[in-house]
Write a structure and sequence with these properties.
binds zinc ion, metal-binding, EC 3.4.24.77, alpha/beta, 6 strands, single chain, globular, metalloendopeptidase activity, Collagenase (Catalytic Domain), six-stranded mixed β-sheet, about 20% strand
């Protein structure tokens, strides 16, 4: 039962987050100072109607966990699309790691594993996190690694911190990652 798969040609996302030194914006108008800007990622559940509630639950778990990016459901013009169906490879995310791409939820896998964990895990990829199958159940990105009995759908402290760092400067990160599309399993 190989539910996980590593992508051929997976490209490591090398993201250089440029810290903004405190005080460097002292001469700038208030609107451009280094207050952390929240980036909104719009996602569509229109093509995954069976899983709308678990997708929204997974997104809510992320919204309750991080501050620099916010997931908002909007079926028109969304950069992140959820789909559903049958695929022997299981669920996956095809994403640039910065809020764009497609997340597929597999029916068979969603019956075997906690579907909210699947949705939240795949969403974690869209927010920039890689797989870490050897991790414990408390780690969302361990995916199917801990087995079907693991129902945790909430990122741990390290995962929250990592996502906040990746989105600390949303616009710069978007420009750096836009061209890189990688597929991750569950
Ligand atoms: Zn994964």
């Amino acid at each position: 039962m190989s539910r996980k798969f590593a992508l051929a040609g997976a490209v490591a996302l090398a993201l250089a987050v440029t810290p903004i030194a405190a005080g460097t914006a002292s001469a700038a108008p208030a609107s451009t100072q280094q207050e952390a800007a929240v980036t909104t990622v719009y996602y569509s559940t229109a093509s995954a109607p069976s899983f709308r509630s678990v997708i929204n639950a997974g997104a809510a778990n992320w919204n309750n966990s991080v501050t620099n990016v916010r997931l908002v459901e909007r079926n028109s013009g969304a950069s992140l699309r959820y789909t559903e169906g049958n695929d022997p490879r299981g669920s996956y995310a095809s994403t640039n790691g910065h809020g764009s791409g497609t997340i597929f939820i597999d029916y068979t896998q969603a019956r075997q594993y906690n579907p909210t964990r699947i949705a939240a895990h795949e969403t974690g990829h869209a927010l920039g996190l890689p797989d870490h199958y050897s991790g414990p159940c408390s780690e969302l990105m361990s995916g199917g690694g801990p087995g079907p009995s693991c129902t945790n759908a909430v990122p741990n402290a390290a995962e929250r911190s990592r996502v906040n760092s990746l989105w600390a400067n949303g616009l710069v990160a978007t420009n750096q990652q836009r061209a890189v599309e990688t597929i991750y399993g569950f």
